Amino acid sequence: MSRNSFLHIRLSYKWIVTIAITLGMFMSLMDSTIVIVAIPQMQRTFGATIHDVQWVVTVYMLTQAAVIPATPFLVSKFGGKRTYVWTLSAFLLGSLLCGFAWNLPTLILFRLIQGIGGGILLPMVMTLLYQTFPAEERGTATSVMGVPLMLAPMVGPVLGGYLVTSFGWQWAFFINVPVGIVAVIVAQKVLRPTPPAQHAHFDGAGFLTAAAGSALLLYGVSTVTSGNDTISNVLFLFGGIALLLAFVAIELFQTSRGQEPLLDLQRFGDRTFTFGVLTQVFFMFLRFGIIFLIPIYLQTLHQETALQAGMIQAAQALAVMAILPIGGRLADRIGPRPIAIVGLIVFAGTTALLMTLALTTAIWMIVGMLILLGSASALAQQIPVAAMSRIKKEESKEVTNGSTLLSVLQATAAPMGVAVFSSIVQVRSQHYTVSLAAQGMKGELLQLQSTLLAMHESFLIAALLALVASVTMYLVPKWNKSVRKQAEQVSQIETSFS
């Protein structure tokens, strides 16, 4: 082949789209891991408690959960390309503002802006991918996209540790600026405009009750579990529950009248989907709660730098990359259900093992525990595959609805886990401070040991809840091989976020 003819070879449009959306997704996923590494330094800089600083993580996740259901309307109203470019721009603007935050409240506010973009990215990727690739090529496309998306959780902690150690926590956000600019330019250049729908309907009542209910529920749970159980906080908690029940009533009413609901809840009539999603909610709650505590243990209690902590945490991501393909092949043979159950049992055992962590635990032991944790998480990635396994590939509307429901619920469960586990550590460390001080312990050792013992209690609770999740996974009906492939295609993108 001549040089000139080689230069005229161009990638087909579908693969250009894959490159464009993968770039944006890589940035979003890497940001999440970098911010987690930076949490201890933010805590020291702002003089904040664990309970206060967790809002940097939870407000972002909660915003994601709130905006995900609005994605189908935005695509219908403005078209896929415009919505995706605006999404990236919102994420980029939020990242820039976060880097310039001058105190904790402003940082939390700017994380909300960043979360608007980050939340819409997941369903937008699925929408653009499914609009571009024919059904028989979607598995290949998601597999190709999955490689860089699995690299992001491995690169993030190391890169984040270096940036935070060398330049400060602000660079956990500033790193997104050059990557984000490139992602926006590429998307603007290569994506083809898609015409908006003529009659786009938005379920405003459903959106408001879901978003407000989720926010109030998270705030109520966070404050009550931290011991601040005043009447107003209890009212926030019950108000959130009431709004979410109103949301369910609104959606069912919309469906009964033949109108387009924000989320079609009829999918929960399927036992496979219901128990699969319930298990995924448990898992996301536990996993993100534990992920939030690990860098605090490494940097605050074990006295590692952010860079050292990031390198240690990379072991978990490496384990996920190594075990994920094995788990997928085994699930092809025997179904996702038993693989997920094994993953949850290993996760329970590993979180129980974390209770042996001490202030002077050897690094190789910590790395070994994180490898086990990553391996368990990789096997548990089959949970959403099992949840979607009864939806046939011809049911495109059901595929979209099921994946949206799954995205919303797991995006809600993750910040709830962070809020609850940080609150447990906050409250129980105060209890242990009094108890250990009475025994004669003083100074910095008193604070460190109190926090460590509180973390041990959190790990115990996580282990017990993981066993409960394995029971709910057992209640999922056995594998139906005829529809496995479609479920796997849909869930490959879903699991890249968990």
Description:
By secondary structure, the chain is mostly helical. The chain has 2 domains: 11-194, Growth Hormone, Chain: A (Up-down Bundle); 270-498, Growth Hormone, Chain: A. It is 80% helix and 0% strand. The chain has 20 helices and no strands. Helix 4 runs parallel beside helix 7 (104-132). The protein is globular and about 75 Å long. 54% of the residues are buried. Mean pLDDT is 82; it is low at 1-9 and 486-498.
At the fourth CATH level, what is the homologous superfamily of the largest domain? MFS general substrate transporter like domains
SS element count, helices: 20
Question: Which structural class matches the secondary elements?
Answer: mainly alpha
CATH hierarchy, class of the largest domain = Mainly Alpha
How would the global form be characterised? globular
Task: Encode the helix/strand succession as letters.
Answer: HHHHHHHHHHHHHHHHHHHH
Question: Which helices and strands appear, and what pairs or packs with what?
Answer:
Elements lengths: L2 H5 L5 H34 L3 H4 L1 H13 L3 H8 L1 H20 L4 H29 L5 H30 L3 H4 L1 H15 L13 H22 L5 H26 L14 H31 L4 H29 L1 H18 L9 H18 L1 H6 L8 H43 L4 H32 L9 H12 L3
Helix pairs in contact: 2-7, 2-8, 2-10, 2-13, 4-7, 4-11, 4-18, 5-6, 6-7, 6-10, 8-14, 8-20, 11-12, 11-18, 13-14, 13-18, 13-19, 14-15, 14-16, 15-16, 15-19, 18-19
